[in-house]
Write a structure and sequence with these properties.
This protein is an alpha/beta fold and 243 residues long. The protein contains ten helices and seven strands. Helix 5 packs across helix 6 (86-93). Bound molecules: S-adenosylmethionine.
Length: 243
């Protein structure tokens, strides 16, 4: 199905419009979180972004499973921008058991809690401000749909790196067009990924475009391996490095 076919289907168009409203130009982070809280009411978010139109959760979970072929029950994961918990549901199908989540939208988190899949949930924005989580806590941070207008800034990626162990993975998927349409990312996100790779803070294992990520639009999946030691990623209050 092409995006043109999405435009021709009024029901799908309604879902697409609801999604566009979460990404209006110039939205402040607090507005984004409020929008999602309202959208989550009566499970409308899950009804709108069902797997027929939004494949992000299954895409990212499959990549995480490829990254951890054995002993998945022992892997410590954090789902960044966990929303209502769709990524956690997909991860648990692969045998992952220890999953934490972070999201700033209270309404989304409320629903996430009802899934009983997540161990700890944090109501926080992922940004340059350090999360209340110790450095090197997780084997893997996953994120689907957390990047967009007013969503996770580039500095949030560095904060994810801080809370992942040396040798651990960050796997995130986002809509391809946001990489140039969202000012925060255009000419910044990929250069920052390259720069920190040259500084040996992580290694870019993969950057791959995926078809049909959301509303028949392409996504991009990134897989980073964290390096630490003398090359630690710092977002600590007294040593915040900006992207
Ligand atoms: C499209 S939803 C994706 C939710 C879930 N990952 C999924 O795939 O269904 C985007 C989520 O990003 C969250 N979000 C927005 N800004 C964020 C930030 N700075 N840090 C963490 N999460 C954020 C929103 O609250 C929302 O729950």
């Amino acid at each position: 199905m092409s995006f043109h076919e999405t435009e021709e289907n009024p029901q799908v168009m309604e879902k697409y419009t609801a999604n566009c409203k979460a990404h209006r130009k110039g939205m402040a982070p607090e507005e984004v979180a409020e929008y999602y809280t309202t959208w989550a009411e009566n499970q409308q978010y899950d009804l709108d972004l069902d797997p027929s139109v939004y494949m992000g959760p299954s895409i990212v979970a499959k990549e995480a499973a490829k990254g951890f072929e054995e002993n998945r029950e022992k892997v410590r994961l954090i789902d960044i921008a966990c929303g209502t918990g769709r990524v956690g549901i997909e991860l648990s199908k692969y045998g992952f058991k220890y999953i934490d989540g972070v999201d700033p939208a209270e309404g989304m988190l409320k629903q996430c809690q009802t899934s009983h899949i997540y161990t700890n949930l944090y109501k926080e924005f992922v940004c340059e401000k350090p999360l209340p989580i110790a450095e090197g806590t997780y084997d893997c941070a996953v994120c689907s749909g957390g990047f967009g207008e007013g969503h996770i800034p580039c500095s949030g990626l560095k904060e994810m790196a801080r809370i992942v162990k040396s040798g651990g993975l960050i796997i995130f998927v986002m809509r391809k067009e946001y990489m140039k349409d969202v000012e925060e990312y255009a000419s910044k996100l990929e250069p920052m990924i390259s720069r920190l790779e040259h500084e040996h803070k992580w290694e870019l294992l993969e950057r791959r475009e995926v078809a049909n990520y959301s509303f028949n639009k392409d996504g991009v999946i990134f897989k980073l391996r964290i390096k630490r030691g003398e090359h630690a990623v710092t977002n600590a209050a007294n040593g915040t490095e900006r992207a």
